[in-house]
């Protein structure tokens, strides 16, 4: 057993045995925005991401395919967009740094922050959301929640090993306040509202 595994096993064995329920947290969703989709789009834009214009009803994913036309290497973690680069064949996560566009489907979005929630199941390999140059997220508009209180009440935080909110491309600002997008991770984050088709 590695020292890491020994430490984690010790922590798990010594967790406090509390029998009292967790306190109830108010939801703060009594006054939701008139349009969750519109609020989500504004929040996403504010964080440097972009909401793609919807495709025609007979080809909802057309905007995604349009973005992928000039891409050298595309990797999809969703069956709705098929690519030649198969995540099942990735032996080392760092190989994903060669990916121009990654396509994933989010579990849900949050209107308050313009965030999408991605799980280890959505990503297949967690590094995909950070090493690809550009991230395209498919999101069912019916899965947009009002705020983070609603988000934390969802089962994903208890059902998956890994969950992360993405609120746009990575960003940093120097001491002069110059904002740089795509500094340490994806250079762009685009979201297409598309219902689940499978």
How much helix, percentage-wise, in residues? 10-25%
| Lateral arrangement of strands in the main beta sheet | 1-11-6-3-2
User: What value does the Rg take, in angstroms?
Assistant: 19 Å
Q: β content, as a range?
A: 15-25%
Instruction: List the helices and strands in order.
Output: HHEHEEEEHHEEHHEEEE
CATH class: Alpha Beta
CATH topology-level name: Rossmann fold
By secondary-structure content and strand pairing, the structural class works out as: alpha/beta
Count of the domains? 1
CATH architecture: 3-Layer(aba) Sandwich
Number of strands: 11
Q: Give the CA-CA distance, first to last residue.
A: 42 Å
Structural features, described:
With 198 residues, the protein is of the alpha/beta class. The protein has a single domain, classed as Rossmann fold (3-Layer(aba) Sandwich), CATH 3.40.50.10420. Helices cover 23% and strands 21% of the residues. The protein contains seven helices and eleven strands. The chain has a five-stranded parallel beta sheet with strand order 1-11-6-3-2. The N and C termini lie far apart (42 Å).
């Amino acid at each position: 057993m590695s020292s890491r595994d020994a430490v984690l096993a010790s922590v798990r064995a010594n967790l406090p045995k509390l029998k009292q329920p967790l306190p109830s947290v108010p939801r703060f969703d009594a006054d939701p925005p008139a349009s969750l989709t519109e609020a989500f789009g504004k929040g996403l834009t504010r964080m440097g991401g972009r909401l793609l214009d919807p495709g025609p009803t007979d080809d909802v994913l057309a905007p995604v395919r349009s973005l992928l036309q000039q891409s050298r290497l595309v990797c999809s973690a969703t069956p709705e967009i098929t690519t030649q680069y198969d995540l099942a064949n990735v032996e080392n996560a760092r190989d994903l740094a060669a990916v121009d566009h990654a396509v994933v489907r989010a579990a849900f979005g949050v209107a308050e922050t313009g965030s999408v929630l991605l799980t280890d199941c959505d990503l297949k390999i967690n590094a995909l959301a950070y090493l690809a140059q550009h991230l395209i997220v498919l999101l069912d508009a019916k899965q947009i929640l009002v705020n983070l209180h609603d988000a934390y009440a969802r089962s994903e935080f208890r059902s998956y090993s890994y969950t992360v909110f993405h609120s746009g491309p990575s960003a940093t600002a120097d001491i002069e306040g110059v904002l740089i997008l795509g500094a340490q991770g994806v250079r762009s984050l685009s979201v297409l509202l598309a219902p689940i088709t499978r």
